[in-house]
Write a structure and sequence with these properties.
There is one protein chain. This protein is an alpha/beta fold. 37% of the residues lie in helices and 15% in strands. It has 13 helices and 17 strands. The strands form five sheets. A seven-stranded mixed β-sheet has the order 2-10-9-8-7-3-6, with helices on both faces. The chain has a four-stranded antiparallel β-sheet with strand order 13-14-17-16. A hairpin with a 5-residue loop joins strand 13 (342-345) and strand 14. Helix 3 (57-70) packs antiparallel against helix 10. The radius of gyration is 22 Å and the shape is globular. The protein binds D-malate.
Length: 414
């Protein structure tokens, strides 16, 4: 005899440690509520980094053709390789990593960078010490908390993480910590601050990882926005990175694939971890096992679209779109600077990180801008406790909306 209550499945308690909802879901809910309460008000979205331009024509043509393939016996594709089709892996190896020693079989196609950044936690141990930037893209923190690596949340910090503080003193560029870390999440150009590492700065991280037997998970989703020649687009531009770095990229911000879903992760054959017996194990083997077990591959049609981005026309169209968003970012950066705010980013990045001289609290400023200017932003504190008092604007809206948003924002924030 047993009581029903005693046999209930036990949940993963780590979920209860997290804030109730994911940052961008909270923002979206607040905007929904605002719209319902203020019908007819023209709200300008300057929060989530979602693109506004249509997909480049080269990709559209390729996807049309791929759909037609699916309608024929000879061109039909069922399950594809979980790690992606060779045609796309080859195009990426040649197009993004020429001269860097990365081969197609080290590239794993996925449904986007966000999934990979969260899923990579499957291949390192639960007791790994994880280093994260504060502020940083919330997926690094939240997914590691879900996996049990966070410890307890005390005054906005998780007890088991090593925090890489980003602040005005270091120009929001963290340097390697004193403390040991097994897994280090870095993002450059950074979300949310928009600052990017030079090759020399990145070398310090690669050297640190090599000295500490650590692995860097390098999020370079925004690499297409790099304009400064001294700034690295890939961590593999740094000698020695092949042995210590995994790189995660996305077609979302370069080619507008936020709704199509496609990205990739590079796991070089030389990156290894240690198993319980103390033997070296290549992480590529584990990631392949993970993906073949839990993922059935990105769709054939979408991968054909991504492949077309590496043709001369595709590359030119991507450059045009990126320039458009960078121009928006410049409009924001200049408007905020002229209005006397502290501003970071917006040069090698679509994001602009702004501090208002008046507001101490990011969410208060968010509410104020929403109520008075009908503009949304992302509250900086949502990216970590050191983001308190800051907000992030995105350059991904249209230029017309960006200009209008800056007009309204400067009026309210003055
Ligand atoms: C952001 O706004 O930070 C990003 O769009 C979120 C994402 O890419 O998942």
């Amino acid at each position: 005899i047993y009581e029903l209550d005693s046999v209930k499945m036990k949940i993963n308690d780590n979920f209860e440690k997290l804030p109730e909802s994911y940052l961008f879901s909270t923002v979206a809910r607040k905007l929904r509520d605002f719209r319902e309460a203020h019908p007819g008000v023209e709200l300008i979205r300057m929060d989530i980094g979602d693109v506004t331009l249509p997909i480049p024509d080269a990709a559209i043509q390729a996807m049309h053709k791929a759909v037609d393939d699916m309608a024929t016996k000879s061109g039909f594709h069922g399950y594809g390789p979980e790690q992606g089709y060779d045609f796309l892996r080859d195009a990426i190896a040649q197009g993004d990593y020429a001269g860097m020693g990365i081969t197609a079989d080290e590239i794993f196609i996925s449904d986007g960078a966000k999934s990979d950044l969260g899923n990579l936690g499957d291949i390192y141990s639960e007791d790994s010490v994880v280093a994260v930037t504060d502020p940083g893209y919330p997926v690094y923190v939240d997914s590691n908390v879900i996996d049990g690596r966070g410890g307890e949340l005390v005054d906005g910090k998780w007890s088991r993480f090593v925090y890489l503080d980003c602040n005005e003193q270091n120009g929001f560029k963290p340097t390697p910590p004193e403390a040991h870390a097994d897994v280090i999440f870095l993002c450059s150009p950074a979300n949310p601050t928009g600052v990017a590492f030079t090759r020399d700065e990145l070398k310090a991280w690669v050297d640190f990882a090599r000295r500490n037997n650590a692995v860097i998970i390098y999020d370079s989703a925004y690499c297409a926005y790099v304009t400064d020649p001294a700034t690295a687009r890939s961590i593999y531009e740094v000698p020695g990175a092949r042995e210590v770095a995994i790189e995660v990229r996305s077609f979302s911000k370069t080619a507008g694939f936020t709704g199509l879903r496609c990205g990739y992760t590079v796991v070089p054959a030389d990156v290894c971890g240690t198993d319980a017996r103390g033997s070296k194990v290549p992480l590529r083997k584990l990631w392949l096992r993970r993906q073949t077990t839990k993922f059935n591959g990105a769709s054939y049609v979408i991968q054909r679209g991504a492949e077309a981005l590496y043709t001369p026309e595709g590359k030119a169209q991507v450059r045009t779109n990126v320039s458009y968003y960078l121009h928006n970012a410049e409009i924001i950066r200049l408007a905020m600077q002229e209005a006397g705010f502290k501003v970071y980013g917006g040069v090698d990045s679509p994001y602009i990180w702004v501090k208002s001289p008046k507001a101490e609290d990011s969410w208060e400023l968010f509410e104020q801008l929403l109520a008075q200017a009908h503009i949304s932003c992302t509250p900086g504190v949502g990216f970590g406790s050191l983001g308190q008092g800051w907000i992030r604007f995105t350059g991904f809206n249209t230029t017309e909306n960006t200009i209008e948003a800056m007009r309204r924002v400067t009026e309210v924030m003055r």
